[in-house]
Amino acid sequence: MRWGNFKFIIPFLTGVTIVNVLAKPLSSVIPGFNLLISFSPPGQVKLKREQWQTYQPTTVGTRLRDADRLFLPKGAKAKVICQNLVMWKVPAGKESIVREGCPSVSNPRLIDQGEDTAPTRNPNTPSIPYLISPRETKLLPTESVTFHWHQVEGAKNYRVSLRGPGVNWNDKTKENQVVYAAEQPLKPGTRYWFTVETDTGATSTREGIIGFSTVSEKEVQEILGAVEEVKQKQLSREAEALALARLYQSNEVYNEAIALLKSAIKDGVESTAIHQLLGKVYQQIGLNRLAREHYLKALELAKAEENLEGLAMTQGGLAITNGIVGNEDEARNYFKNAKATYQELGDEEAIRNLEKVLTEILGVNQGSQKSKVKS
User: Fold this and answer.
1) What are phi and psi for residue 334, nearest 5 degrees?
2) Predicted confidence (pLDDT) per residue in 37-57, tens digit
């Protein structure tokens, strides 16, 4: 599936289809963020967000905002990738405000793509063949696309279709995946829809018409250029996986972000940040059951690492995903735990934001009457 003169791009790809969610509404101000990618010694480099009462130990992969403060004792080291991909070596023996080393720019490369907004509310009902990949994501040029969906118990055959400008493709398979080999080429900067139906009558359209978009020719150059820039920084395995995943996430190329994080885990690189980000990306594209699996692993790791913010964020993710898939009691219990952890940090704003989202989700699940979240 080549686009114009972009055959040269293929060697840059990892062999995994790269994808990303629908474009968000344009804004006059693009919110960027910075990323902590190395520090030593462990436990000595500390972070204080604007809402927090005290400094807390931090971890590789932490997103940093302009007003956040970092404290490094004498002899300690820390590096941050700024929102424009410039590296900042944080000075030791003092407190630093992040904006001093990473000032805001008009065209950030690390972008907040609505990560803190209400999630996509797909319960991923096991009785339907809901699309797993590529799902609500942007796709970079590639020779073929492998579509993968949830395998429905009792289904022996699947009928699939792909629709979009210049594409009207159908196929049948006994497997829960199929390869589209570009008989009708995908066009850059275009939206496509994919549906699956089982021989038992179950259909993916029960979740709505799910699909993906293709990146524009200009975006391809910008994304691959930024990827190469990050790779040249010679980061640790964990830091590079997190930085590149954040970069792909910023450009809504979610499939590649997922592939990078899963590859790191397969190679034995596991941390709260890796699993928490993988859970978040799955949550963003509406795969809430898969998100929950990685949040549970992140929860286990956060407790072992004594990572208070990672613990709170993971508890919040578990509250939301359990609420979406219908586990309301578990959702309320995780919210209660997240609230207690955020209170320990002194972050009342995070509590309010989580409570608002969860109240809306439980209200939807329970009918037209919105119920208050019990804490």
Assistant:
1) -70, -35
2) 999 998 899 999 999 999 999
